[in-house]
Amino acid sequence: MKFINNLYQLYKDQLTGDEEDALIIINGILQNFSDEDIHKLISDMSNREQFEMFSLYLYEKFRIKVAEEGLGQILNQDDQDDSKFLH
After folding, report:
1. Is pTM, for the whole model, over 0.70?
2. Does residue 19 lie in a domain region?
3. Domain total of the chain
4. 3: closest CA among 47, 37, 48, 52?
5. Cα separation of 3 and 43, whole Å?
6. What top-level branch of life does the organism fall under (predicted)?
7. Which of 16, 31, 60, 79 could form a disulfide with 75 if both were Cys (CB 3.0 to 4.6 A apart)?
8. Quick check: 44 and 6 in contact, CB under 8 A?
9. What is the DSSP string of the chain?
């Protein structure tokens, strides 16, 4: 995507390789964008890029939901409420 390539060229000498760099830069840029600017970027994407973007969005939302609900966590017996083990 041309926008990302240009953004990378602009910031590449300031990046530390930390994932948070990208988040900070993207959030900072998007705060200055209007809804029209965002819609233009999306409409300029190929169908594949739009699919990938939406897939990542849904994946991230689902991952956050699972983490919030605590699903999939396996607790050790010593992590359990002791009242369950009274004799």
Report:
1. no
2. no
3. 1
4. 37
5. 12
6. Bacteria
7. 79
8. no
9. -HHHHHHHHHHGGG--S-HHHHHHHHHHHHHT--HHHHHHHHHTS-HHHHHHHHHHHHHHHHHHHHHHHTTT----GGGS-GGGG--
Q: What's the CA dihedral at 50, 51, 54, 58 to 10 degrees?
A: -170
Q: Is residue 34 part of a domain?
A: yes
Q: How far apart are CA 30 and CA 49, in angstroms?
A: 18
- The residue type of 53 is M
Q: Is residue 16 situated within a structural domain?
A: no
Place of tokens 């840029």: 29
pLDDT in tens, 7-64: 999 998 888 888 888 899 999 999 999 999 999 999 999 999 999 999 999 999 999 9
